[in-house]
Design a protein that fits this description.
The protein has about 300 residues and is mostly helical. The protein has ten helices and seven strands. The termini are far apart. Keywords: Membrane, Transmembrane, Transmembrane helix.
Length: about 300
């Protein structure tokens, strides 16, 4: 029996040739299906944990863990160009790359980190989780829907295991009332939300950044967007923690909009829709992010003993 594998036109094709009867069995599967399966399984696990603990606020921890993974991915994938994802859904390949990373960074790894932290799992469970993820990484490479440049599976094992340990420690620190852990959790979930919104605005061709750090304009956009997302998440976090009167907190959306204006003036920020529509969309989304950050702050405060 011979197995032939190739990836073409967004389809992953597995052809099984049987020598005995000279029959050919072809299984055609779109590249995005494995990514979709991982996303659905992750959401099911997330819902199970929330309902089993009867705490909807656990989604704040989940988003905070996502933000922390976003930081790591910004360093190793956006800057380091360590691997490439091929879900083949979007017309722009680099945005496809980021979309594949989002499946891992927004869903799979943070959900497992939440499970590890909430249930304070022992090392053997963490090793089992990491081993499963390494197996999935191998499977995605075999299916030709994921490619590594210089990354190694050993790196995945070490860094993801470390991440799970950090999530356990982080939750204990929040519960003990450590201010740094509360601040960091609030910042990470705010930046994760801001960067996700900015990515959506990029793939819908509402706006993009072009500074010239990278030759690929789409990679350049994601690079600047990530930095701006970190800054805007920090502004929301500081506003919620420092400003006591809720109505004064609405200065935060004005400020995050204001820091974009010099970039717009110098042509670094390019808006592809009428500017007045962009302004409305921006303030609506920024206000929703502010509201969510306020909610997240109340949840984190309640977790402290």
């Amino acid at each position: 029996m011979k197995i032939v594998k190739r990836c073409s036109m967004g389809m992953n094709i597995l052809a099984i040739l049987r020598n005995d009867k000279e029959k050919k069995v072809v299984i055609v599967m779109p590249n995005y299906i494995p990514y979709l399966i991982l996303t659905i399984v992750s959401i099911i696990i997330l819902i199970f944990v929330i309902f089993s603990k009867r705490q909807f606020g656990l989604i704040v921890l989940f988003l905070g863990f996502s933000g922390l993974v976003y930081v790591a991915e910004f360093l190793v994938m956006v800057i380091g160009n360590c691997y490439v994802y091929y879900p083949n859904i979007l017309s722009v390949q680099y945005y496809n790359n980021i979309l594949g990373a989002i499946v891992s960074n927004l869903f799979v790894i943070p959900v497992l980190g939440l499970v590890a932290a909430v249930y304070q799992l022992r090392l053997r469970w963490l090793v089992l989780f990491v081993g499963t993820l390494v197996g999935i990484e191998w499977l995605f490479e075999w299916l030709a829907i994921y490619h590594t440049n210089w990354w190694r599976k050993g790196y995945t094992f070490v860094f993801v295991l470390l991440f799970f340990m950090v999530t356990k420690f982080w939750v204990r620190a929040i519960q003990s009332g450590a201010k740094w852990s509360q601040f960091l959790m609030l910042w990470m979930q705010a930046w994760g939300g801001a960067s996700t919104v900015m990515y959506i605005m990029s793939i819908t061709f509402i706006r993009y950044y072009e500074f010239g750090v990278f030759e690929n304009i789409y990679r350049d956009n994601i690079f600047i967007s990530a930095i701006m997302g970190l800054l805007k998440g920090l502004i929301f976090t500081v506003a919620v923690i420092i400003i006591r009167k809720p109505h004064w907190r609405f200065l935060a959306p004005i400020l995050v909009f204001g820091i974009d204006m010099p970039l717009y003036y110098f042509g670094i920020l390019v808006v592809e829709i009428p500017f007045w529509i962009y302004t409305i969309v921006y303030f609506v989304l920024a206000t929703l992010l502010l509201w969510w950050t306020q909610y997240a702050y109340s949840i984190i405060a309640k977790m402290a003993r």
